[in-house]
Amino acid sequence: MYDVVIVRYGELALKSPGVRNLYERVLVRNLEAMLKQENISFSRVYREWGRIFIESDDPAAAKAAADVFGVVSASSAAKVEADIDVAAKVCADIGADRIKDGESFGIRARRSGKTGLSSTDIGRLCGDAVWGRLESLGRTPKVDLSDPDREIFVEMRQNRAYVFTDIVKGVGGLPLGTQGKMIVLMSGGIDSPVAAWLMMRRGVKIIPVYANNEPFAEESAHERARKCVEVLQRWSPADRIKMYDVPHGKNLDTIIKKCNEKNTCLLCKRTMYRMAYEIMKKEGADGIVTGSSIGQVASQTAANMHAEIYGLGIPLYHPLIGLDKTEIIDLARRIGTYDVSIMPTSGCGAVPARPEINAAFDLIVREEEKLDIEEMVMDAVTNARSFFIGDE
Ligand SMILES: Nc1ncnc2c1ncn2[C@@H]1O[C@H](COP(=O)(O)OP(=O)(O)OP(=O)(O)O)[C@@H](O)[C@H]1O
């Protein structure tokens, strides 16, 4: 019965015509890629009157479309002539199929362009058709416009009418690829994959960087980070994600040997940020994203976060900063990274027994002067390994 998917987008519609046109084209490309990735058969994806349509009778098409960044909602619909008799008959067919005896129904009508009928007329005529059909089937029809058991939506446009019953909520955001690229410091824990996904949802392509702490961490930690990115790859069907593995164990060893041990984690972060910054410039990216969230672990204090970035001038973003752990976990489940992130790994063996929790930013800078930080960073970045997800 359904032969098309209506794809609705929100924020995009607020852009100027040129920007909107560009973003819509990116969205169409991403929708096509998602449908192919999910093995959904479709004949075409096209734009019309502020909507995107997918010609497909696959029942899974609307759900796949709803998982594309930029999409507010999607509905599988029957596309018919813009003729009220035809639309009313389709409503009656759908009503006969969906509305059980004793259930109430409501018609939600909309129109755009000149159809010669008001939306109230459309609602009444389609409602009459459903009522008549249910009666002819021996069911007792019941109309309830405020809280019906079943809703049937009718949209009359100038050339076409669309009839549908379900609206699948989309992920929202902006089409992936419209907001440039950023590096994501990807540990593979619960937080950093969620931070990455939130930036992807805002249209930013990601380049994950894993700081490999071996021998202070096990190989399994690298595996976990890579597997998280594999899950994120499913949200980026049009482009393969490039990931970096940067050797960081030697840096940790030097930090432990030369500096006060309570500052190890702070100096580790500053080194990581510098490494990420070098990769950012090399990749033509414009920012660095972390999964930091204030107060989440004892060391994620405002004072420490200040000390971690003091004097660096690096564009850092922490999209989880104000979220609760439960909110982050809910998102991780929705994204699909949660089960990977909770896989047991060794943790970092370089973490001191009593890490600093109230760092003085000027003291950290003096600690850092004990290191040949630029050489450490350049050495690590030169020996970094990059690969595309799916190649390993
Ligand atoms: N080995 C690593 N490689 C890349 N980034 C890292 C690494 N370790 C930490 N980070 C970055 O620093 C952020 C804060 O890490 P930290 O270990 O302090 O907190 P966390 O709550 O355990 O984070 P996560 O859940 O993301 O592991 C991480 O979200 C990530 O962005």
Characteristic terms for this protein:
392 residues; alpha/beta; VC0802-like; 2 domains; 9-stranded mixed beta sheet; 6-stranded mixed beta sheet; 15 strands; binds adenosine-5'-triphosphate; ATP-binding; ThiI_fer; EC 2.8.1.4; THUMP_ThiI; Probable tRNA sulfurtransferase
Largest sheet: 9 strands, mixed
- CATH level-1 class of the largest domain: Alpha Beta
- Computed CA radius of gyration, to the nearest angstrom: 27 Å
Shape: elongated
Number of helices: 13
Proportion of residues in helical segments: 40-55%
Distance between the termini: 43 Å
Query: What's the domain count?
Result: 2
Small molecules bound in the structure, each named once: adenosine-5'-triphosphate
State the order of secondary-structure elements, H for helix, E for strand.
EHEEHEHEHEEEEEHEHEHHEHEHHHHE
The fourth-level CATH homologous superfamily of the largest domain is HUPs
Family: Belongs to the ThiI family.
Protein name: Probable tRNA sulfurtransferase
InterPro entries: Rossmann-like_a/b/a_fold, ThiI_AANH, ThiI_fer, ThiI_N, THUMP_dom, THUMP_ThiI, tRNA_STrfase, tRNA_sulfurtransferase_ThiI
Keywords: ATP-binding, Cytoplasm, Nucleotide-binding, RNA-binding, Thiamine biosynthesis, Transferase, tRNA-binding
